[in-house]
Amino acid sequence: MGACVEEARQGLGALRCDGEVLVIDNGSTDRSVAVANAAGARVVVERRRGYGSALWRGIREASGDVIILGDADGSYRFDELGPLVAAADGGADLVMGSRLRGTIEPGSMPALNRYLGTPVLTFLVNRLFGARISDVNCGQRALRADAARRLDLRAAGMEFASEMVLKAARAGLRIAEVPVAFRCDGRGRPPHLRRWRDGWRHLRFILLASPNVLLVGPGLALLSVGSVLGAPAFLGSPRLGDGAAFLAAALVLLGAQLAQVGMIVKTWYHVEGFYPRPYMERLFRHVGFEAGLLLGLGLLAIGGIVTAPLLLRWKNGLAVEGASIAAALTFLGLGVQVIASSVILSVLGIRRRRN
């Protein structure tokens, strides 16, 4: 800890700029606080546990225009801050360090993290959010204070690192990247990082932040396939076999459910300010609860019209085609789904108006 603070002070001195060294104590049980104070750092206590909680407290407490983040375990060099600050002064809102494009000391980074975990997570963030970086998990980065506070970062754990990047990319902030050196840490205890647990938390966060990929896209695909397959039955033709008709009904109902849940997730993100999207405002203005209610009631009415003669045939002891039953269930199920989703979206709309 003391060596990191001293390095940071040297780095500020080399830049000949005003700055402070801020240390966030997140439940340490050793002499870290006393050592940091003695080395000249300002120590702030953050009682909420977690990597993200500590970093977000540091961002809120920082008074400078450019905030440099890093782990206080000796793995990052704080006496070589020039490239990070230069990129921020050059107009970048977020400057990512890249261990993979810099230097990695032997033994400092497990092979599984270096060649699998970090590349996969980085690929997903680049592919889904257009970040265009090489190392999403690098803990040394710089960001402008005004941009940092606009991001409204919320993750409490290790996934905070991914949240910062994908929110910056979604917000259209300028992201730059500079190579950094990565060393073996100087801790005398095992790290808090748990490879599989924290890797899964990163992956889960990235996927949940992509409802179009996780829900809406697959849902629309299933809905389209089911609609094409079941078109004869849905249009009243008995030519489709019973098995194919029920398969089509299942695909349509499952696809519609996934797509609607995806829209609910997207709406929640927008309402809560997690990922504000301009087109969601247009959706709220032009598609209200009444439209969804009318659509749902219309689908229920069609289902009722299809169901009525089937019930009469069944009552009179006549055979009922399975394809017709599948069509009736599809329209009735879709009607209930649309009405239920409209209620949820309307409730979220009330929350939006209150905000």
Explain this structure.
- The protein has 355 residues and is α/β, with parallel strands linked by helices.
- It folds into two domains: 207 residues, Alpha-Beta Complex (Spore Coat Polysaccharide Biosynthesis Protein SpsA, Chain A); 144 residues.
- It is 60% helix and 10% strand.
- It has 13 helices and six strands.
- A four-stranded mixed beta sheet has the order 3-5-4-6.
- Helix 12 runs antiparallel to helix 13.
- It is elongated.
- The mean pLDDT is 89.
Short description:
With 355 residues, the chain is of the alpha/beta class.
Tag the structure with descriptive keywords.
355 residues; alpha/beta; Spore Coat Polysaccharide Biosynthesis Protein SpsA, Chain A; 2 domains; 4-stranded mixed β-sheet; two-stranded parallel ribbon
Topology:
Elements: H1 2-15, E1 22-25, H2 32-38, E2 42-45, H3 51-61, E3 66-69, H4 82-89, E4 94-104, H5 111-129, E5 141-144, H6 145-151, H7 160-170, E6 175-182, H8 195-208, H9 211-234, H10 242-271, H11 278-286, H12 289-315, H13 322-354
Parallel strand pairs: 1-2, 4-6
Antiparallel strand pairs: 3-5, 4-5
Helix pairs in contact: 5-8, 9-10, 10-13, 12-13
Order of helices and strands: HEHEHEHEHEHHEHHHHHH
Provide the structure class: alpha/beta
Which bin fits the share of residues in helices?
55-70%
CATH overall fold name of the largest domain? Spore Coat Polysaccharide Biosynthesis Protein SpsA, Chain A
Shape summary? elongated
Strand content: 5-15%
Measured between the Cα atoms of the first and last residue, the distance is: 42 Å
The CATH homologous superfamily of the largest domain corresponds to Spore Coat Polysaccharide Biosynthesis Protein SpsA, Chain A
Low-confidence stretches: none
CATH class bucket of the largest domain: Alpha Beta
Tally the beta strands.
6
- Integer tally of domains: 2
